[in-house]
Amino acid sequence: MHTAPLGMNDFFFGVLFVVIIIFLGSSKKSRLLKEKSGSHYKYYMWNIYFKLFFALVYGAIYMFYYEGGDTMAYWKGAEKLNNLFWHSPIDYWEEMISSPIAEDIILRFNPNTGYPPIWIYRDPGSFFVSKIMSIFMIFCGQSYVVLTLIFGYLSAIASWKIFELVRFYKITTDWFAAISILFIPSVAFWCAGISKDTVVLLSVFYILHYLFGIANKTIERRWLGFLLIYLFGFILFNTRTFMLFTVVAPMGVALSTRVTQRYKDSPFLSNIIRLFIVSLGLLGFLFFLRSQGDAFATTTNQYLTEAQVQQSDFANNESYGDKRYDLGITDYSPIGMISVAPQAIFTAVYRPGLWEARSPLLFISGLETAVFMYLTLIFLFKGKVNQKIRFIRYNEFLVFSFLFAIILAYFAGFTSGLFGVLVRFKAPLLPFLLIVFTTNPKAIGEKNIEKQLDLKEG
Question: Are 63 and 6 in contact (CB under 8 A)?
C-alpha cells in the first residue's frame, strides 16, 4: 500500500498508462476517420495531450510546491476507501451509500485501512469525490499518477463530445470551437486532474451531450442516454448541488426555443409560449422550494449565514494578502444578493486582471481575462452586433451557453472572495462564454444566416 502520493511504481505505471491512452486515442481517431472524414479530427489527439499535460502539471504543482491541497486529500480519501474495499467489501459498500459523519469515522475505518482526511470526510460533497475515485482504484490501483492520467483522459473525451456538439450547431469556425472547448489553459489545469472541479465539469459535459443528443435525435439508444443523464445528475447533485440548477434552468429556457420554432409564423404566439415555458419552470422551482418546508428555509438561512461569514473573513483576514477581493456586500437578504448580481458577474468574468495577479497561476488567469475583455469589445463593435444577438437568441445551444455562464458567474463571483477560489469556480463557464463571444455568422455564410434568421422569425 502507498504511504506517499508518489513512488517508483508511479513512474513506471504512469508511462505505461500514457502509452495505453495514446493507443486508445489513436485507435478512436482512426475509427472516427473511417466513419466520416473531417479536418477537425486533427484536434483529437492534441486535445488528449493538452489535458494530460495540464492534469500532470496540476498534480505536480500541488505535490511539490504546495505539498498538499485538495487533490492530495481526495487521493488519500480514495486510497483509504480502496483499503477498506480489500479489507471488507461489505463495509466499503455501506460507506459508499451512507452520508459521512465525522464522529462515525471509526465505525468502518481502522489503523489497518487508515483514516481519510477528517476535513474531507466531514464534507459529504468532497468525500463523494473520493468515493468516485476509489471505484477507479479497484481496477487501476492506488497510483496518484495513474489516477491523474485517467481523469485527464476522461476530461479529454468529455470535452470532445461538447466540441462535436458545437460543430453540430454550426455556430462558429472549427478553430474557434476548438480553442473555446478544448484548449483553454485554466479549464484544463483546474478541471482535468484529481479534483472536484474535474468531476463537476465532466458531469456537466456529459449531461449536455446526452440532453442535446436526445433532443436532436443523434443518440441511438435513448434509454441509455436518459440513464446516463440521471447518473451524472446524481453525481452533480452530490458534489456541487447548485451546479445542477445552473444546468437545468438554462436548459429549460434553451429547449423552449425549439418549441417556439413550431409557431414561427406567429411571433405573438411564439413569445407567449416561450413566456409560458419559462414561467412554468419558475413556478415549478418555487413549488419545489415550498415543498421543502422548514428544512429548506433552515438550509437557505444557513447558506446565507455562511456566505456572510465567508465574505467577512475574506475581507478582514490579513493572512489572505492581496489575493482576495471584496464586493462590498452589506445586505445578505435575498434582495441584497440579487442587487449585487451585476458586480458579482462582472467580477467572475473580468477578474482577476493582470494588475491583480500575484502568482503565476493568477497571471495565466489574468491573461485569459484580458482576452475575454478584448473579445467582448470585438463582439460589440466589430461586425453586425444585432445579427449576432439575433443568432444567439434563436440558437438553443447559444441560449444555454449564455444563461449557464451568467448564472455560474453570479455564484462564483458572489461566494468566492479569493481570486484563487474564483478562478477554480468559474472555470466551467469559460468554454461556454467564449463560444458566445466567438459566435461567427460567417462560419456558414452571411446569406445563409440571414435566411435562417428570417425563417425562425417568420
Answer: yes
Global pTM value: 0.86
Query: Which residues on adjacent β-strands are paired with residue 324?
Result: 418
Per-residue pLDDT of the chain (458 residues; tens, 9 = 90+): 444 456 777 888 889 999 999 999 999 988 888 877 788 999 999 999 999 999 999 999 988 888 778 899 999 999 999 999 999 999 999 999 998 887 778 889 999 999 999 888 988 889 999 999 999 999 888 899 999 999 999 999 999 999 999 999 988 889 999 999 999 999 999 999 999 999 999 999 999 999 999 988 888 889 999 999 999 999 999 998 888 888 988 888 888 777 666 666 666 776 777 677 767 666 655 554 454 444 444 444 444 444 444 444 444 444 444 467 777 666 656 666 677 888 889 999 998 888 888 788 888 888 999 999 999 998 888 878 888 888 888 889 999 999 999 989 988 888 777 888 889 889 999 999 999 998 876 655 444 444 454 445 44
DSSP-derived secondary structure for 292-356: THHHHHHHHHHHHHHHHHHHHHHHH-GGGGGGB--------SHHHHHHTHHHHHHHHHH-S-GGG
Q: How far is residue 150's CA from residue 198's CA, in Å, rounded to a whole number?
A: 11
Cell 490501483, residue?
141
End-to-end, the C-alpha distance of the chain in Å comes to: 67
Is the backbone peptide bond immediately before 352 cis, with ω within 30 degrees of 0? yes
* Residues 339, 344, 345, 351, Cα dihedral to 10°: 150
| Torsion angles phi and psi, residue 340, rounded to 5 | -90, 0
Structural domain boundaries in the chain: 8-197, 284-457
> Cβ distance 212 to 175 under 8 Å?
no
Grid coordinates representing 131 are 468515493
Q: What are the cell numbers at 96?
A: 459508499
Grid coordinates of 18: 500514457
Helices 144-169/196-216 angle, 10° precision? 30
Backbone angles phi, psi at 418, to 5 degrees: -120, 140
